[in-house]
Amino acid sequence: MSAETAPTAGEYIGHHLTHLQNKPMAGVIDFSVFNLDSMFWSVLLGLVGSLLLWKAARGVTSGVPGRFQAAIEILVEMVDNQAKGIVHNAESRKLVSPLALTVFVWIFLLNSMDFLPVDLFHKVFEWTGVDHSIHYFRVVPTADLSSTLGMSVSVLLICVFYNIKIKGIGGWFHELTTAPFGAHPVLWPFNFVFQMIEFVAKTVSHGMRLFGNMYAGELIFMLIALMGGTAAMSLTGILLPIGHVIAGSIWAIFHIMIVALQAFIFMMLTLVYIGQAHDAH
Question: What are the residue ranges spanned by the domains of the chain?
Fold first, then answer.
């Protein structure tokens, strides 16, 4: 591509932040529009994560474990210890512990897509001749707010389930109307509104935290890619190409920690919120 036809930095970033959708947005809020790229990668990596855990469970031996089995055992033990410290109901942990493990593995894989080169799939589409039909394609589902909020809403529904299961409908309704200000009937509406605000705030912050960190990471990778594009067109400067390599390497190494940390934080908050659903106020 020549310099005359090259996109500006804003156009480049805007193009890479646009999702592949089933149809154009009809308005600001349109629930009939789906981000097909996020759905594709979420389902595919969910299957990959399930396959990895299934393979580990199927290949368990009582002897000296291999590296893969040892890594999975360490991960399972870590998640199980966290679940025991937060969710004190042993019966609930039979579901909650595997759920937390699945959440961690799934989100870790989704976050790891950020390590792929920014322009990889766009170049693949050009080489295969399908770039005319797929103009936009994002590969990091956790940098999509609809994906992360979908996960956090799912956690909310699980919390509602355990609130009803542990306390009963009557017990949960009593908690919604009497905590935190007291059981006087005059305070019931205020308690209920406060509880609803708390549920909404926890759900939104749960999804927004993951989205914000991964979205920012994706932007930084794009800015580094732009630095590389500028370096490629620079005939005299040597510092810019060197800076591009150094910046890309440093951020990629640092991003490894972010990818794992964000998966761990989302898993821990999932355990905390489910644990709170077991506690009586």
Answer: 9-278
